[in-house]
Specification:
single chain, about 300 residues, alpha+beta, Aminopeptidase, 2 domains, seven-stranded mixed sheet, four-stranded antiparallel sheet, 14 strands, about 25% strand
Length: about 300
């Protein structure tokens, strides 16, 4: 790869940075869904994600299309108080951010800052990740999952489907399916959906260089659903992307259950990321009865 960027000389996340960034994230054993190389890379265009190293710490900041600029938590060994302070001051002075902040920080990081009166720590509910027991999502047992079992039964009575792993030869079909999905949902009218479409394209087109595992549902020879995820830490897999034909009732439930069964049966938990404050998405994620939420926080300077 290129020479590693050193603070304050950030540069955009590129596929050639995978080994350097991935190893540092994995050594940190993250709990939050943002902290995988895949997530940083596929969302780079939308969030304009940049990185560098300062000593033993990986620093990341985002300057999104809507003009909001913020950092993610420094990744590396504790204590991280002084480097967090340095990063926030850099955002203020060099990036001219009026109210510099760190977003989506986990509880491990905030516990390091809790007794320091220079910081304000606020929960960010819209960014909390949903964590599930893998066995719950595979077997869907008990009263809580009665409706999910009904969805799958109804789907299986209506369609003859086959689950397959995503392979390089499936990528174009998945891209074609996503394009059709976007036409159905009129992505061109929603900047967020267009950003997601860009992220999905980057994920699929770089499948061989990322640590992604994927699955598809094929019906009558056509891809009608696909999903992508990876290991987040030693116990948890994270699902980054899940798309299904919205006109096939129960298909989202099927791809979720099948992916967990085929790809993640050996993992203890599944992280299905956040709801971004969208009511429909929140209700859908809650309907699977998460075992707990992975809390995240926004950190600002008290004198800001």
């Amino acid at each position: 790869m290129k020479n590693v960027p050193r603070f304050p000389n950030f540069r955009p996340v590129e596929i050639s940075d995978a080994a350097e960034i991935s190893s540092r994230l994995w050594n940190n054993q993250p709990k939050t869904s943002e902290l995988t190389f895949t997530n940083l890379f596929i969302w780079q265009e939308y969030y304009r994600i940049n990185w560098c190293l300062k000593g033993d710490h990986l620093l990341i900041y985002c300057s999104s299309a809507d003009g909001i600029c913020y950092a993610l938590e420094p990744v590396g060994p504790p204590p991280r108080t002084e480097i967090a302070l340095r990063l926030l001051h850099w955002l203020r002075t060099d990036m001219e951010v009026e109210s510099p902040h760190i977003e989506r920080a986990d509880t491990r990081f905030t516990s390091e800052l809790a007794d320091d009166n220079r910081f304000i720590i606020s929960p960010a509910r819209e960014h909390f990740d949903y964590l599930y027991r893998t066995n719950d999502l595979i077997h869907l047992e008990g009263r809580n999952y009665h409706s999910k079992r009904n969805f799958i039964n109804t789907f299986n009575q209506s369609y003859k489907s086959e689950y397959q792993d995503i392979k390089p030869e499936n990528v174009k079909e998945c891209l074609d399916f996503q394009e059709a999905w976007c036409r159905y949902h009129r992505c061109e009218e929603d900047m967020g959906l267009m950003g997601e479409w860009s992220a999905i394209r980057r994920a699929l087109e770089n499948l061989g260089d990322l640590n992604l595992v994927g699955g598809i549902i094929v019906i009558d020879g056509k891809v009608q659903a696909f999903t992508l995820g990876e290991k987040l830490n030693r116990e948890t897999a994270v699902v980054h992307i899940e798309k299904a034909n919205p006109e096939m009732r129960g298909l989202y439930t099927v791809i979720n259950q099948q992916f967990c069964e085929h790809a993640w049966a050996d993992m203890l938990c599944i992280n299905r990321e956040q709801d971004l404050g969208e009511e429909g998405l929140r209700n859908a994620k809650l309907s699977y009865h998460p075992t707990r939420m992975i809390e995240k926080f926004t950190i600002t300077l008290k004198d800001a």
